[in-house]
């Protein structure tokens, strides 16, 4: 694994980041406060170093910004992992956040897939549209080239539920990235 710097600039957004899955400082600055909070949780609980800044067309809404951050973070993770040899490959975590419970299951196999099951009890947390949670996760998994299944079992507070999802993802990724003796965990010999 290695540190990676990535940038994406479109007519809608501008995203810059430095990701080090081995650890480091966490500094996130986007115009979407709730996204900042979720990304800080993700990096902290995954044990990553993450420096990220983004701007976007919030006069439209936060969708382009949130999705593009997911795209760039996924691309950075894909590059940082290299050939993925020596990684455990699989990771799973079920994480509570008070009354909420969420699960994330990861396979770093390089066959991107995403599935999200669950419903939030509200449409928004503050100004953040909660339908953007699965949009971010899908962009991350597709561009990071890994399989991700997320289940949001239950909860009453939408903030807690989103937080449980991001923490579960962080712990699952941390487990999937943990070192493994020998070659890749695959009968094919490669991931």
UniProtKB/TrEMBL annotation:
Keywords: Amino-acid biosynthesis, Cytoplasm, Histidine biosynthesis, Lyase. It is an enzyme of class 4 (lyase). It comes from the Bacteria. One of its GO terms (cellular component) is cytoplasm. InterPro entries: IGPD_sf, ImidazoleglycerolP_deHydtase, ImidazoleglycerP_deHydtase_CS, Ribosomal_Su5_D2-typ_SF. Its EC number is 4.2.1.19. Pfam families: IGPD. Pathway: Amino-acid biosynthesis; L-histidine biosynthesis; L-histidine from 5-phospho-alpha-D-ribose 1-diphosphate: step 6/9. The keyword Glycoprotein does not apply. It catalyses: D-erythro-1-(imidazol-4-yl)glycerol 3-phosphate = 3-(imidazol-4-yl)-2-oxopropyl phosphate + H2O. It is found in: Cytoplasm. One of its GO terms (biological process) is L-histidine biosynthetic process. GO terms for molecular function: imidazoleglycerol-phosphate dehydratase activity. Its main location: cytoplasm. Belongs to the imidazoleglycerol-phosphate dehydratase family. This is Imidazoleglycerol-phosphate dehydratase. It comes from Thermosulfurimonas marina. The lineage of its organism: Bacteria, Pseudomonadati, Thermodesulfobacteriota, Thermodesulfobacteria, Thermodesulfobacteriales.
